[in-house]
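Usage

Read records sequentially. Each one opens with the input sequence:
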Amino acid sequence: MKPLFIMKTGSTLPAIREARGDFELWIREGMGYAAAEILLRNVYQDEAPPHAEEVSGVVVTGSSALVSEREAWSERSAEWLADAVEKDVPLLGICYGHQLLAHACGGVVERNPLGREIGTVTVRIEAEYASDPLLEGLPPEIGVHVSHVESVTRLPAQARNMGASEGDPNQIFALGDAAWGVQFHPEFDADIVRGYIEGRRALIEEEGLDAGALLDATRDTDHGTRVLRRFGEIVRERATS
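and closes with the structure output:
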């Protein structure tokens, strides 16, 4: 099978990286893939991505960068993603990757008008999409981990809006038969998201949020891992069909 391409758009917080590793490790382990099956490119450091035809699928990571700033590396990556969608390459955008995918295909990304969303939240899956290939088997409401200040405020015209939280109406969307964006972090566990709350505590409190309450509400959930694992299965199924 061709390798799975992880498009790395940034790194986690330094303290978390030192203790737990980084996005690509959590994504790979969540999907159940071996290191030899992964092709990693740090596009935020101007590493060139492979040709879309050279990979079996793509996962786009989160980042502390902002899609709305339209940095050169990010805009090049958006062009690459638009091409991958046209070529029907299986694709999963996570947080920044979710936003970048939307931007690449004509959506709008800007500061979330509902404010920062961080911690463990409930995402409601639209009933008509309960049998979507990525979401099948999940309950109508799932617990997932989030950390973002920007959001997709307008989805691409052709996108299907499949899930929402109280803090973001566009938590899950799909394009075509093989591309999905999730605003949440399916690769995070409760310990990682607690690290984000602690690492962002000063900003959180400046914005009027209660860091202590967010920490208390953080809980373990396997729903994100199930999404990651299912995407890995979709990639394998399509590669061998």
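Summary fields computed downstream for this record:
- The chain has one domain: 4-240.
- Residues 223-240 form the longest helix (18 residues).
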